[in-house]
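tool_call: predict_structure(chain=1)
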Amino acid sequence: MDVREDDNRTLYDRYAYPVLKHICKYISNKQDAEDLLVEVFLAAFHNSELNNFPAERQLAWLLRVTKNKVIDRHRHLTLLTMVPIELAREVEDATPTPEQFAEKHESYERLYRALEQLSPLQRELISFRYTNNMSNCEIAGIMGKSEEAVRQMYSRTLRQLRGIYYQIEGGERE
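tool_result:
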């Protein structure tokens, strides 16, 4: 066995569990999660510089690749949600009226327009938090910032987004 294979085995042994645990937050199917784990480590094994990184940067790199792989998987898979027949009546009763649907649609459009006015970094932060349900600690590790810096950036971003949203909403009412 050469040194590179030894390094790869050590890398896998050290980080496979935390990476798999992270993947399982977003993917419930065990086989799909394990497949994604393989994809992450294949990418890692192709990065010849990764073994030269300090341990913290190795984990941050692996989590960033994991995040990208999870996002790619969600983009490429269309999931159908099936409702048991017993619950169909309850779901039917919760169907919004045409007016409610139109209002919700307009609200989403305003939100998307407001999001477009944020910087790419702010949009990524919102995505980490709401699309990936990540904690400030996890986001800080991926972004290479302190947890407090992420918390402050998140607070400023939400305030700015709220302001833009209401500005757009006010402009449409006039």
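agent: The chain has a mean pLDDT of 83. Proceeding to next step.
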